[in-house]
Amino acid sequence: MKKLSSLAVAGLLLSASASYAAGELHIYNWGNYTNPDLLKKFEKQYDVKVTLDTYDSNESMMAKVKAGSSGYDIVVPSDYAVDIMKKEGLLEATEPDKMENFKNMKPEMVNLYYDEGRHYTVPWQIGITSLAVDTAVYKGDIDTWGVIFNPPAELKGRINVLDDMVSVIHAAEHYKGFKLCTSDKAELKQINELLLAAKPSWRTFSYDGITLLQSKDVDASVIWDGAAYRARANRATLKFGFPKEGVEGFVDNVAVLKGAKNMENAKLFQNFIMDPENAAMISNFATYSNGITGSEKFMDKDLSNSPEVQRPASMKVQFSPPCSAEVIELYNKIWTNLRK
Amino acid sequence: MSELASLQDRQDRRRHRLLALPAILIMVILGLIPLMIVVVYSFLKSGEYGGVVPQFSLEAYVSLLFQRDMFDDTLTFSPAYLEIYIRTAIFGVVTTAICLLVGFPTAYFMATRPADKRNLWVLLLTIPFWSNLLVRTIAVMFIIRDEGLINTILIRLGVLDHPVTLLFTNFAILLGLVYSFLPFMVLPIYASLEKFDFRLAEAGFDLYANRLQVLTQIIIPLAKPGIVTGSILVFVPAFGAYVTPLLLGGGSHLMIGDLIALQFGSSRNWPLGSAFSIVLMIFVMLALLFQIRRSGQVNHG
Amino acid sequence: MASFGSSGKIDIKRQTGFGFIAIVCLVTLYLPILVVLVFSFNNAQSIGASWQGFSLRWYGTLMQNQGFFDSAILSIGIAVAATVISTIIGTMAALATTRVKRWRGQAATTLIITSPLIVPEIVSAVSLLAFFSFIAQTFGISFGILKIVLAHASFCIPFVYLPIKARLEGMDVTLENAAADLYADRWKTFRYVTLPLLLPGISSGAALAFIVSFDDFTITQLIAGPGETTLPLFIWSRIRNTVTPELNAMCTVLLAVSVAFIILSFVLTRKKQD
Does A339 touch chain B (CB under 8 A)? Predict the structure, then answer.
């Protein structure tokens, strides 16, 4: 109880006085995504106290930030979320492109649609949404979305699909060869039918593909590359697929909130993670790729040589801007119809 | 004499109003006002990227029941959302029924233990719930999955030759819901029964020949406030529950709670989510109102 | 036809099958807990894996997990505070609205007090977020942890209020009336007669309130600020990725602490009675 009351007092003091926090940084990131050693290293290097809180979806993070006075300095939105937050004036233009370590950023990471020229954000981790299959159960070609949308007999009823409306519909659009975020009603009708036909073969809708695969509740799953890497640690016959129809990529980025109390420390952090060694620390913990050149030599060999990271060069990866509200409404209808 | 009595009455009433004041204040500030915000949201237009735009619109309520057929733009009656409401309601009712059938005997058992041991039983009942709900749900999953505890044991014993599918079924959802809400049924019934002097019932054997009659004619009516309370405390949250059903049911069928959460999430349609919530609340409020009126008429000091 | 004094007097306390159902019920409640406990010693990487040998390593990992301890202590603190507040206020409100001469606005009051129950959690979460942020931005007051405590107290109140109300409704008024003759003071009547009679209802309500606050996720997730990670938030963030048996260890430790607490209070109350 004593600890609680001193916590409470500290909390009150902290919130009451604005300039108490000379050496602090408040980070809001996805769960299990931040290497604690990385934070310790940052704390020691710059004599800053770091707090870390977590969220599990872009939308809940954005809701908190939009409401205002969240108290956070740094958030880590995904690509489309950066676009949204920028347009709504929630991000600070910290000019990472002028920072010392900017030269380390991979060139292809600099001019992505949501932050061309990198005036606001720095990439944290990069990944793709693809699929993983247990090759002991199904021995056929796994480099196609057909495994999910037109499953072979061995996998029927043994598939997990991400509980993510946009990811799944985008995958369907890739499979059918349509444009991402298409608003063509005829095309959407086809997607609707495709999904409805495939649903009986799906067992679950969950983000938790790793556990489901490891506990053998499912034998195939729509999954991100880093998650597939982790799942494979406990089920060696899993293989990550690279659909030839194309996949959607995602980039989670470190952004600074407008009006953040610890602006200088936040900028230091952005610069800090553009250092190859630090970027490697992030990757080693979260098991995804990062956007910094030279980090490979600091990454775990097992990770950097893994099939998930070493993608085939012919792989078609697309980064998709957020769909317009009308299209989301149509997606909504398809998704509700699918899940009811 | 009557003047004194009515003065006493007024003092009593005032006192009672004061007693209830803190509760009213907290609820108005932290319950009603935020609720008003939600009602307002349901009548606004949806923002481009989530949130709301301060513009009046009935779009949310219209799309509850009707939808523009996406391919020819006519307004047709769309039962999709209604189906989800109904399914969730059925789960709620069945969960409440099971909790009642299991909970009443349990509460009765607890209330008939020796007086000094009763608190122990209450604690015994609530201890499992001091672990985190999420972890308990994962444990339940672990027990009922295809390669889980139950199936492994039954196969080893030779009762089955291949696993019976328990996880990701309606059964699993019910199990999860009952498991989450059982104490909310047991404890109010226990509180109601506990004060009952069972010796009075034993005297009642002169009137009724057997145990069953004493039970139904005397005890159950006396426990009624507890039963009603327990049913409310189970049904209402079960109606809005979605995390446990999602984990245990696999997500192939949406519950209304999940649908609402979706609107505030990637579907970015806060007005629709608000409208869903308002309809949900109206339904439940009617049921509550009915119960409050009835119990208000039963007892006068 | 059983008559008074005849042999075969029925013990009303024993109903056929009730004891059996109660025991089965309790056993089923504890089964997942047992599983969690046993598998916290599992020497495997994943929480869903089969038994791979006894090991204490997950407890070792847990002991170094500062985040777990911080969030557990925070959750307990918030739950205790919310329970105390909601129990006091809820009891007062129940006394004021049950078995009393009708006062104006009584029905409305009952409805208002039970309103959090009928609002889906996600809706409360969004509305509370908007509310607290509005206050923070207009008046510059930031409540910190207090806003979580207040929010929890507000939705715990119905869980305290309803069981006490149920208990009051069936209570024998004559006892209180008799006491009122003995004690001229209303407060004394309350303290020595009503309160002891109410105690089972109050403790049921408080137990429920504690559970509700301790487990709350949706609302806390949206309104918690920096450094205010409660236990459910902490666990949820772990669940989304590789789940190791460390989670089991966490759960077991929590339970062990609660059980120890109960045993302690049991011993203490026994001493008082002596």
Answer: yes
Residues in Cβ contact with A7 at an 8 Å cutoff, skipping those fewer than 6 apart:
C74, C77, C145
What does the pLDDT average to over C219-226?
83
Distance CA C87, CA C156 (A): 8
Q: For residue A216, is it left (φ>0), alpha (ψ between -120 and 50) or beta?
A: left
pLDDT band of C1, cuts 50, 70, 90: very low
Q: Determine which of B75, B138, B252 to mutate to test the interface with A (most A C-beta atoms within 10 Å).
A: B252
Alpha-carbon distance A148 to A176, whole Å? 13
Contact yes or no for B271/B39 (Cβ under 8 A) = no
pLDDT digits (tens, 9 = 90+) for C129-172: 878 877 777 777 777 888 899 999 998 998 888 888 877 777 76
| CA distance to partner chain C, nearest, from residue A50 (Å) | 10
Q: Is B268 helix (H, G, I), strand (E, B) or coil?
A: coil
Q: What is the DSSP letter of A22?
A: T
* Residues of chain B scoring pLDDT < 70: 1-2, 50, 67-77, 200-215, 287-288, 290-301
Facing C237 at nearest CB: one of A31, A70, A72? A31
Chain A CB contacts of B140 below 8 Å:
none
Q: Are A74 and A256 in contact (CB under 8 A)?
A: yes
CA distance A224 to A222: 7
Cβ contact A243:A130 at 8 Å: yes
The single-letter code of the amino acid at B139 is A
**CB of B195 closer than 8 Å to CB of C203:** no
Confirm if B121 and B110 have CB atoms less than 8 A apart. yes
pLDDT at C82 over 70: yes
| Rounded Cα gap, residues A204 and B145, in angstroms | 13
Which one, of B289, B292, B281, B280, lies nearest residue B84 by Cα? Answer: B280
Distance CA C49, CA C52 (A): 8
A87 vs A45: CA distance, rounded Å: 34
pLDDT in tens, B234-286: 888 888 787 888 888 888 778 888 888 888 777 778 888 888 888 888 877 77
Do residues B132 and C211 make contact, with C-beta atoms less than 8 angstroms apart?
Answer: no
Report the chain B residue with the minimal C-alpha distance to residue C246.
Answer: B135
Question: What confidence score (pLDDT) does residue A263 get?
Answer: 92
- Comparing CA positions, the residue from A56, A59, A97, A52 lying closest to residue A81 is A59
Query: Contact A258/A273 with Cβ under 8 angstroms?
Result: no
Place of tokens 């006062």: C103
Q: Which residue of chain B comes nearest to A209, CA vs CA?
A: B250
Quick one: how far is CA A190 from the chain centroid?
Answer: 28
Which of C37-40's residues contact partners 24+ apart within 8 Å by CB, and which partners?
C37/C248, C37/C251, C37/C252, C37/C255, C39/B142, C39/C245, C39/C248, C40/C245, C40/C248, C40/C249, C40/C251, C40/C252
Do the beta carbons of residue A224 and residue A179 sit within 8 Å? no
pTM, rounded to two decimals: 0.80
Q: Between chains, do C145 and A8 touch, taking CB under 8 Å as contact?
A: yes
Spacing of C-alpha A153 from chain mean position: 32
Strands A247-256 and A317-318: parallel
Q: Strand, helix or coil at B46? A: strand
Under 8 Å between Cβ of B192 and B249: no
Which residues, in sequence order, are CB contacts of C123 under 8 Å at separation 6+?
Answer: B35, B38, B260, B273, B274, B277
| Pairing of β A121-134 and β A220-224 | antiparallel
The whole-angstrom distance between residue A310's C-alpha and the CA centroid of its chain comes to 18
- What type of residue sits at position A167? S
What's the token pair of residue A257? Answer: 């909130």
